[in-house]
Amino acid sequence: MSAKASQTRHPPCLSFRAHTGSPTEKGKNMAKIVVIGGTGLIGSKVVAKLREHGHDAVAAAPNTGVNTITGEGVAEALTGADVVVDVSNSPSFEESAVLEFFTTSTTNLIAAEKEAGVGHHVALTIVGTNRPQHIPYFRAKTAQEKLIRESGVPYSLVHATQFFEFVGSIADISTDGDTVRLPGALVQPIAADDVATAVARTAAGEPVNGDIEIAGPEQFGMDEWVRRGLAFRGDPRTVVRDDAAPYYGATVDERTLVPVGGAQLFETRLDEWLPANPPRA
Length: 281
Hints:
Layout: E1 3-4, E2 8-9, E3 32-36, H1 41-52, E4 56-60, H2 74-78, E5 83-86, H3 95-116, E6 120-126, H4 136-149, E7 155-160, H5 167-173, E8 175-176, E9 179-182, E10 186-187, H6 192-203, E11 211-215, E12 218-221, H7 222-232, E13 238-241, E14 264-265, H8 270-276
Parallel strand pairs: 2-14, 3-4, 3-5, 5-6, 6-7, 7-11, 9-13, 11-14
Antiparallel strand pairs: 1-12, 8-9, 10-12
Helix pairs in contact: 1-6, 3-4, 5-7
């Protein structure tokens, strides 16, 4: 059964504050904010939200000529930037490839930020990276976080729980025949739009030089969450709870993937998100 968590609640739409800490008005206190991964699921939403609040938000990604692995276009994109937001993701989740992506990209980005005089680095990461676990992707994100913490650039790390949007892909990688095997480890999924709100608000504020945890309002067993998602969409696969089943290649403890006290909770619930987000054709 789902359960409401007891952390701090935040509405899904929040008034941003400018980089100076004062209320944002169109044309006033406008910051140049470069969003690495700015054409993806989260990045495109972050760019839109920042622009709505008067900021000069720049979508930077390989398809806009900015590549943080090769360094192509990075210095040019960061010229005059006040804030850099990194919501980019590795194209491969293979252990060595994902580690190489996040360490190379972050090293190149930090070097360019120092050269450009960027005053705030915001990175989107994951709830659970600071706890014992054996997920290769999490280890890569931990390495990224370490580089950011030790960089000397003021920073904010936004740790999000799993996104509602990945319910289908999690089912797919856990499917054998017509059966989906998933552990009962707790998840507290969040809508991508709420993640983008949190990231944009953080980018428009002052660096916290620490961590922010964000999550949705409900906790589920992972198997229950996916079962409800597939059932709503008329997917005939059977979801079976199997606590030995891997999650992205590793077993997880019951509370590895949910936030601890003090997390910011957003209000979008699974029953609201599902009808508004049919599966892609």
